[in-house]
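Provenance

Sequences were taken from public entries as deposited. Structures were produced by running a predictor on each sequence independently, with no templates supplied. The record for CREG1 protein from Rissa tridactyla is shown for reference.
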Amino acid sequence: MAGLTLLCVTAALLLLASGGAIPPPEEAARMARFVLHNCDWGALATLSAQEGLRGQPFANIFSLSDGPPGPFGGSGVPYLYLTDMEISVQDLEINSNASLTVSLAQTPYCKKHKYDPQNPLCAHIIFCGSIVKVNDSEAGLAKKALFSRHPEMESWPKDHNWFFAKFNITNIWVLDYFGGLKIVTPEEYYSVKP
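Predicted structure for CREG1 protein:
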């Protein structure tokens, strides 16, 4: 009996840690919110401004957060902690347009189900838009969102002039099932909870 109780408690904790049950494929907006909230990093693609790569696509990994972990902590806004010293941020200073891909492949979900990261059932989301610095009124929210998931950030070198930014979403594509991408509008995305 004790083993069954431990198994139930473990299952409940895993469900909470993952932010709850994965949304069904017909709820693409909820899936997009779920994937972003349960991922701690993404691949940010910019148009390079670097010598020898100017105008070419350039992808880089960035830590991100839409709010503290847990089923009720997400705003849906991808926040980032950036410095002008970073090569992709230098690209963004010339052209702030970017795309951001986040995938459940970084969570235990896909491994548990033996889904390859390229399998559509291992859901991933592609956001298009631009990176903007957050204003003073939003900085506290961004700080809480990021530092709650990435506590190491608080100790990063102050002389790097870190700043809080957000991904301003204009387009969203969801790949979470067979049959191709689903388009979700930002209005649909922000109107649902993960």
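The radius of gyration is 18 Å.
The chain is about 30% helix and 25% strand.
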